[in-house]
Write a sequence for this structure.
């Protein structure tokens, strides 16, 4: 990768994205090994700087860094000097003094990781782990990686021409934005399905299709990705009732039966079972939701490895026993 930071899925060229996905494929094999660590980033320090709660993403980045033998510092805004009024700049200077090589940032304000990366406060690589309602690029990468494993499993195949439906609260979803950008770069056709009130202004500039009719879209899709309704970000009524939303935009067994045989069901989590997706669909054979979590560790390992100057191949030629002796 030519960039020092990963701030937006839109910053990735197709070559960048495919390098991350191919590196993740190498690293994914570690999940099946008895020894799951590599010495690739020994001596490097990764800081998880989280201003918002996110158990899944933080633990995934922590596991990724530790499997590459990096030192990890988990920094929560709650109970820290940030809760006492310390600025993002002062926090960045503190991390710089600690010798952080990479900072993984999740922030409630859209654009905060960009400020950290470009204000000149720190020389660390910055990875956006979710900023406001803006973006979540590593989630999009792990989603694309999961799709390729199921829809393009043979080496050299791509997502070109694959149809992906992203359904639900697009307005408040950073995952939807990053996926729309990345999947277009990788050649997929994306349709956003939501009530008019949950489609953002300017969505017509995203280069994707939109629809209000889930039943019309599902039979033609290769992937259906359900989004959580983010009621904590809503300050108004965006739909009449939960029952009405589920009736029109929820994925249940009846709707799942209209999918093609090879189609897969995804969800970035956390799920609201019974609202946007029923339990039987979430736990069905078409669902790859649990696999997304496993794949997330491999993809984040790839991002850390490539941003911090790792040389290919990602996995050393030594045996697992030799690698364990290096730890």
């Amino acid at each position: 990768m030519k960039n020092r930071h990963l701030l937006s899925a839109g910053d990735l060229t197709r070559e960048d994205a495919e390098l991350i996905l191919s590196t993740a494929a190498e690293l994914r094999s570690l999940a099946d090994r008895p020894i799951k660590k590599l010495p690739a980033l020994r001596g490097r320090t990764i800081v998880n700087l989280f201003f918002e709660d996110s158990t899944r993403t933080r633990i995934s980045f922590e596991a990724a860094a530790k499997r590459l033998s990096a030192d990890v510092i988990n920094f929560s805004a709650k109970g820290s000097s940030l809760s006492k009024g310390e600025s993002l700049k002062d926090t960045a200077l503190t991390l710089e003094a600690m010798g952080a090589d990479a900072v993984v940032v999740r922030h409630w304000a859209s654009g905060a990781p960009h400020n950290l990366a470009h204000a000149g406060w720190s020389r660390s690589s910055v990875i956006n782990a979710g900023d406001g309602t803006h973006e979540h690029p590593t989630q999009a990468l792990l989603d694309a990686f999961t799709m390729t494993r199921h829809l393009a499993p043979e080496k050299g195949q791509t997502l070109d021409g694959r149809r992906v439906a992203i359904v639900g609260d697009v307005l408040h979803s950073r995952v939807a934005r990053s996926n729309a950008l990345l999947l277009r770069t990788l050649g997929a056709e994306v349709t956003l399905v939501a009530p008019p009130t949950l489609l953002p202004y300017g969505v017509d500039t995203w280069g994707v299709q939109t629809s209000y009719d889930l039943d019309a879209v599902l039979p033609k899709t290769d992937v259906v990705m359900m989004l959580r309704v983010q009621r904590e970000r809503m300050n108004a009524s965006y739909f009449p009732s939960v029952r009405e939303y589920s009736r029109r935009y929820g994925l249940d067994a009846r709707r799942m039966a209209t999918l093609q045989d090879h189609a897969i069901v995804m969800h970035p989590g956390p799920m609201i079972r019974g609202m946007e997706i029923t339990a039987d669909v979430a736990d069905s054979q078409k669902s790859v939701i649990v696999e997304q979590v496993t794949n997330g560790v491999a993809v984040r390992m790839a991002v850390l490895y490539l941003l911090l100057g790792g040389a290919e191949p990602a996995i050393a030629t030594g045996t697992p026993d030799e690698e364990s002796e290096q730890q």
In short: The chain has two domains: 9-135+292-326, 137-289. DSSP finds twelve helices and nine strands in the chain. The CA atoms of residues 317 and 323 lie 9 Å apart. Strands lie at 45-50, 71-76, 102-107, 125-131, 163-167, 189-193, 209-211, 223-226, 264-266.
